[in-house]
Amino acid sequence: MQPATPKGPSDFDTFIKGLWKENPVMVQLLGCCPVLAVTISMRNALAMGLATTFVLVCSNILIASIRRFVPKQVRIAVYILVIATFVTIVDYAIKAISVDVYKALGAFIALIVVNCMILGRAEAFASKNTVWKSLLDGIGMGVGFTFALVCLGSVREILGSGRLFGIDLFGPRFEPWGIFAAPSGGFLVFGGWLLFFGWLQARKQARLQGDAK
Amino acid sequence: MTTVAKQGATPTPAAPSSAYMIAVMTLVATLCGLLIVAAYQITQKPIERNEKQILQEAILGKETGIMPRAERLTTYAVNLQDKTVAKLAEGATAKEKFYAGYDASGALVGIVMEGVASGYGGPMKAIFNYAPDQGIIVGFSVLDHRETPGLGDKIKTDAAFLENFKELAVTYAPETQTITNPIATVRHGRKNQPYQIDAISGATISSKAVGRLLAKSVEVMTPIIMAHIDQIRRGE
Question: At CB < 8 A and 24+ separation, what contacts does B17-22 make?
Fold first, then answer.
C-alpha cells in the first residue's frame, strides 16, 4: 500500500504499461487459465480478449467511481459483485452476437469472473486512482491481455489446424500438428512465448548495463 | 495486506458501522441487478432468434441441413405419460418435442428428433432425421459437443462416419410397439447390420456416445410417433 505520490505517472505511461512492461500474461503471469484454454484459434483468442477487456474496463470505471463510498471491510465483496455483473452482461452479449463464438468459448466466458487479473487491477489500481486513470489502465491491460492471447492463438491455429482466422494456409497436403490444438500444446506454445519475452527482457537489460558503463 | 491496518502504529480510523456497510452493499447490488436486467431485456430477442436460426439451418439448410427437402417445420410436443403428441404453439416450449417437416405439397418428409448423451468430454446434443415411411434415419447433425479436438470431434466431420447416417435402420415392430434391434455402435470395420454404426477408429468413446444418443431417443420417441403418424401426416 504505497502512499499517494504527488506526481503520478503520465496518462500515456498508465496506458502503455499493460501492453509491455507489466503485461498481465507474459510478465505478471495472471489469468493463464483462459489463455491456455481458448487459444485454439485466432477467432476464439480475439473474442476472449475483447470480452475480458470489456469486463476489465467497465469494472475499473465503476469501482473507481464508487471507491470513496466503499468501506475497506466489504470492498472485495463489492468488487466481485461488480465484476460478476459485467461478466453476465458480456455473456448475454456474445450469445446475442454469435452463437458460434459462444459455443467455442463455452464455460470460459463465465469464468472471466475468477480471472485474477481483473480483481487484481480493481484492488491494485482502480480502488486508488481516478476514473480516467482507471479507464486507461483497463484498456492498456485489456489490450495487453488480448495481445498475449493472439500470440498463442496464431501459433496454435497455424500449426494445429493449418489455418488462420479459419482460412486454409497450406492446402490439403498439410497434416495438422494435432498436439498444438490440444491443451498440452497450449503449454508448449506458452512456454515458447515466455522464453522469447524473457530473452527480449534480458537483452534489453544487458544493453542498459552496457550503456551505463 | 488486509490486516496491515490492525497493528496500528498510526491511530486507525474507526470502523464504519455495520448499517453503513450493509447499505453500501445493498446499493451496489441493486445497481448491478438493474444492469443485468437491462442487458437481459436487450439481448433476449436476438438470442432467441439466433438459436432458432441455427436449428432451422441445421434442419432445412440446402447444403448442410439434415432434411433439405422439407419446406416448413411444425413442432410437436410429446407427453411421455399419456403417450400423446400435440402441436406446439408458436413461442411455447416443451421438454420433449420433435419437428415434423413437410414439402411444398404438404406431404410429410421426415421427423427430426433431438437427443442428448454423455460423450468423452461432456454432454453431447444432436438432431437426426427419421423417415417414417422407410423406417430409417437419413440424416444426423451434432449441435453441441465437448469432444477432443482432432479426435472425438471427427463425429462432426468424418465422411466415413457420417455415411452411417444415410440409411441407418430403425427396427420398429408395430405389433409390439418396440424396437427389436436397438441402434448400437460397433468397432471400426465390424459393421454388418443395417442398425449398426461403424465407429471412428481412435474416437470410439465419442462414436459410442452417438450410438447411445440415437438409441435412447429412438426407443422413447418412435413408438409414440408411429402411434400418431396419421395425425402428424395430416398436420394436426
Answer: B20/A71, B21/A71, B21/A73, B21/A74
Rounded distance, CA B227 to CA A115, Å? 53
The rounded distance, in Å, linking the Cα atoms of B32 and A82 is: 7
Nearest to A151 by CA among A2, A48, A54: A48
Its pTM surpasses 0.80: no
Residues of A in contact with B43 (CB under 8 A): 92-93, 95-96
ipTM of the complex: 0.79
DSSP summary character for residue A112: G
Quote the distance between the C-alpha of residue B83 and its chain's center: 21
Q: Is A93 close to B146, i.e. CB distance below 8 A? A: no
**Domain spans of chain A?**
16-212
Cα distances from B153 to residues A78, A114, A163, B168, in angstroms, run 41, 28, 17, 21
Query: Which of B2, B43, B56 is best to mutate for the A interface (most A CBs within 10 A)?
Result: B43
Q: State how far the alpha carbon of A138 is from the alpha carbons of A118, A129, B36, in Å.
A: 9, 12, 21
A153-183 per-position pLDDT tens digit? 999 998 888 888 878 888 778 888 888 888 8
Q: Do A71 and B20 touch (CB under 8 A)?
A: yes
Report the C-alpha gap between B4 and A119 in whole angstroms.
Answer: 20
Partners of B97 in the beta sheet? B77
Q: Which amino acid is at B203?
A: A
- Of A12, A1, A15, which Cα lies nearest the Cα of A138? A15
Chain B residues 113-152 with a CB less than 8 Å from chain A: 144, 146, 148-151
Model confidence pLDDT, tens digit, residues B94-135: 888 899 999 988 899 999 999 999 999 889 999 999 999 888
In the beta sheet, which residues pair with residue B115?
Answer: B126
- The C-alpha cell that represents B27 in the structure block: 446499493
For residue B38, give the 3-state DSSP assignment. Answer: helix
CB B211 within 8 A of CB B165: no
Number of Cβ within 10 Å of residue B92's Cβ equals: 10
Residues B94-113 as b/e (b if ≥16 CB within 10 A, e otherwise) read eebbbbbbbeeeeebbbbbb
- Out of B1, B24, B39, the one facing A69 most closely (by C-beta) is B24
**Would an 8 Å CB–CB cutoff place B40 in contact with chain A?**
yes
* Adjacent-strand bridge partners of A86: none
